[in-house]
Every structure is written in C-alpha cells, then in structure tokens.
Amino acid sequence: MRFLGIDLGTGSIKLAIVDEAAREVASSSAAYAVSSAHPGWAETSADAWHAALVDAAARLPSHERDAVSAIGFSGQMHGVVPTASDGRALRPAMLWPDTRARSLLDAWPEPQPNPVAPGMAGPLLRWLAINEPEVAASMGWALQPKDWLRVRLGGAFVTDPSDACATALAAPSGEWDEALIDRAGLPREWFAPLAASHGHGGVLSAQAAAELGLRAGIPMAVGAGDTPCAALGSGLIGDGDALLTTGSGGQIVVMCKEAPASMRGLHTYRGATGTWYRMAAMQNVGVALEAVRAWLGYASWPAAYDEAFTADASASVSFLPYLSGERSPWMNPAARGGWLGLGLDDTRGSLMRAAFEGVAFALRAGLDAIRHSGTPLTAMRLAGGGSIDARWRQLLADALDVELHAVDCPNAAAHGAAMLGGVAARHWRATELAALAPSATRVASPRADAALQDRHARFIDLYGRVESWF
C-alpha cells in the first residue's frame, strides 16, 4: 500500500510516494514559470500546473504508482484561481508574490487578527472584480491552488481551514467571515465549503487516472497549505516545536496548542491536523536569490555558491532583498531592494555573498519578531529545497543564532500531504501521525562572529533609513 503526496509549489510541483510506515519510497518534480505581464504581477497558468503534474507522475516508477491507494495535496498559499462552475480556470492564477492590489487594502483596516498582504486571495479578488469584471461575472468559484488541482483530478469543490484562514477573508480559525467578504464586495458563493485537511475530498476520475498512471477511484484528501503540510511532514508535533523552510519564500513556524495572541507582522494560522501555529513569513528568499543569480550571470547554483562563499564578506556592502515587497515583520508591500555600499574593488562573488547575507538577515528579522513575542528559539528544524548547501546552512545558523537540524525527508510538504492521504484512506488516524515523524540531523550550530553581527546591525539600520523612500 502506497500514498501519494502532491505539493503544488510556486515554481515547481513535487511528488512523493510513502509506504505504510510513512517512509518515502519515490519522488519526482517538474518546473513551470511564474510570469509577470506587468510590474508587480505574479501569475502562472493553472493548466501548466496540471501539465507539470502529468510530467512528474510519469517519472515515478510504474510499480509504485500501481500501489498508490490515496492522494493528499499541499499547495502554495494565499493566491487564487478564478474558476468557472465546471472547474475550468478562467485566467492565469494570481500568486502570493503579486502586489497589484496593494492600493486596495482599505477593506482591511488595522487592527486585523492577521497581517494582510496584497498577494492574498481577498485583495487579489477585489482587484479582479474592479479590473476584470467579465472574468468575475463568469466565476463560480475562487479556489486556492491545491483545491483547483484536486478539482481538476475529479475532486470536490471544498477547501480546508489551513488554506482558508490565509486568504484575508476568514477568521484565524478558518471559518469564512461573511461580513469581511461583503465589505470586500465579493460574492459569498465563490468560497468553497470547509472540510478537514485529512477529510475525503473526492475520488480520482478515470481521465485523471489515465493521465497519471494511477488507479481510478482512489480517494483524495482535501489537503492543506504547504506550510502546515511541511510542518506535518517534518515532524513538528509539540508545543514550541519550530521549523525554518526556505523555498521561493521563507517561513519560520512555531507550533502552538492554543491560538497565540495577535501580533503585528506575525501570522496565527491553523495547522493540518487542527493545531495552531505562529508564523513569520518572508517573501524574499529563493525569489530574491534566483533573481540575483540571473543578474550576475551564474549559469548554475554550484557556481554561485562557490564564488559567494570563497569571497570574503565585504565590510561595506549590504543587500536588501526586498524585491517583491515584504511581509514579516515589516508588512511593507512597497519595500524594494538592492545593494548599498558598493566599491570598485567589489566582485561578482562579493555581491552574491552579500545577497546570501541579506536574505539571512531578512529571515533573522522575522525570527526576532517571534522571539519578541515571548518565544525563545535556540534550535529549529530545517526543510526546503533552498537549504541544501552546507555553507548556506552554516550562514543561516550563524545569522539566526540557532542550531539547525535538517529533516531527514527531502520533500517535507509532499510527505505531509501523503500522510493526509493515508488518513483519508483510513490507513492511519490523525492522532497517530505524530508517531510517524521523520528523524532530523544536526547540520549547523551557531558560531560567534562579531563581524557578521555588525553587518546584521547595519542591515537593520539601512532598512530603517530607506523605508521612507518606498
């Protein structure tokens, strides 16, 4: 018996098959592009997601696919897929880095129980209703990415609390806020009914089964957002357990038995199994580093890592990575980035090194906000495709002043999604998932580095000085 987890990320889809003991036995992935037709836009064709899924599924061993008994879903959060009543995407999906709706946040006056960013479904749908009324008039549903994909495979029009609570249209508990939906000028009927993340979300259609090389009729779990799925797949089970994920964006997640008090710049969201988590969410991690790598002309990531970490850290160059605005802790969608302090003696390697440090310092700003909320963190689990290189891991540990333990599971979000599929198929109970947690290996302990801390202090000072420019 096998369970398939599908993680629909910002730039790629990742699949993982786990066995009866939740051990990963096969994985694959396929990439797609994020487009920006206008400044500040971030979109992807939903049909490209499905094509990538078919491509990635074909790379899985056929004998493992034959044994799949259920499917679970994980997906990038906040964005939205405008969808017809029959499940067709009516336009490209609008994604979480999108800032086109930043002038429309007046429907969410402070204080809010959770920070509101322009790339959340609420502001994006408000923009859509104003600027693309013909699309809005044709809509039957406003779906979260993983929900659209599940519907495309034959599933039900439902969502889960972990995704709903991050739309800026629901309470932190996940229940839709009808008053808020009305204030944003949106139809209530667009929003799918709620079901548990591990609940039954339909069965795989015959057409989808043929496309994916799976058996028709197998159950599909509703699924959850990628952050709570990564937490589940990484073994976060106890109050205070913490995880750093680095992908296109970065998240620092701390599990909580009860809903933590609201705090500006931090999020209070629902987990995949009914728990809660506090989160600092930083938009500019892999997104910023990938842009810098392209600007500097590195043909590969190994070359970028080698030159960056061979170069001496500059005492004068700082890089603000805020290329798409920023969420935690600044909540400033207008923030922008760049290098400051450049000299004629700086090299491509020193600029790349400054970019890595700038991203680490941006993560530190989010972590310090969590620490200031009363949660002392000295150790965290580490997951995500953007945290493989040992030198980058050490810089993260030094800059964040934490001990990092890499989860011994390369596809944490897909792994968590597969576990949800196993519960939907009644192979496990939700209460048994804690016993399936993967091990973690210590990869880096923080080193005292006074010069690095000086550069961190300069980074924070520089952001404060230039914030008024935006």
UniProtKB/TrEMBL annotation:
Q: Where is the Carbohydrate kinase FGGY N-terminal domain?
A: 4-233
Give the family, as the similarity comment puts it. Belongs to the FGGY kinase family.
Q: Which UniProt keywords apply?
A: Kinase, Transferase
Residue stretches making up the Carbohydrate kinase FGGY C-terminal domain: 308-425
- The name on file for this protein is Sugar kinase
Its lineage opens with: Bacteria, Pseudomonadati, Pseudomonadota, Betaproteobacteria, Burkholderiales
What are the protein's GO molecular function terms? Answer: kinase activity
Under PANTHER family, the record lists: SUGAR KINASE (PTHR43095), XYLULOSE KINASE (PTHR43095:SF5)
Q: Which SUPFAM superfamilies match?
A: Actin-like ATPase domain
Protein's organism = Caballeronia grimmiae
